[in-house]
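On clarity, I found the account of how folds are encoded harder to follow than it need be. An entry of this sort, consisting of the sequence and the corresponding backbone structure tokens, reads as follows:
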Amino acid sequence: MSRARVVSAPRLVATAGAMDLLRRLRGGYGPLMMHQSGGCCDGSAPMCYLDGEFIVGDRDVLVGVLDLRLAPGAVRTDTPEGEDAVPVWISGPQFEAWRHTQLILDVVPGRGSGFSLEAPEGLRFLSRARAFTATETAALDAEPSITGADWEQGRRPAPAAEPTVVAEAVEACPVPNR
């Protein structure tokens, strides 16, 4: 398995609430994966599936791999595997539009998508985002993205150098003062 270099800002961050829901879903269903929807059916929502249930396209881009072992603020030096790993994908064209933003996976009360595993939980996953700084964007653009085709060939991301789990979304995506 080849690993990419570690970059300073992860493309994906999750809230503690989203991680808790993913752990609960994993306990009930097994290994998971997510795909950031491009607007079909349920709008532009992050969708949670059993690992392998959604067919990742060759041009889909890996936004990150969530590590279900992590608590807010923690950083690990190893890459999650098996049921601890939740790969999060986005379509290639949507990635091009969002490449300058960090995706923050959150969870809020409400009915999830009919296709997503959290639908009966009374909660739904929600994407939030923050724009990367010019320095972060340059560093990330210098790194080749991992596509579905790369994944099939065994390419995996290196562990994130910064925490990828925050207690609440506002830690990763501050709300401006009015």
In short: The chain is about 20% helix and 25% strand. The CA atoms of residues 16 and 90 lie 21 Å apart. Confidence is low (pLDDT under 50) at residues 1-7. The first helix runs from residue 16 to 29.
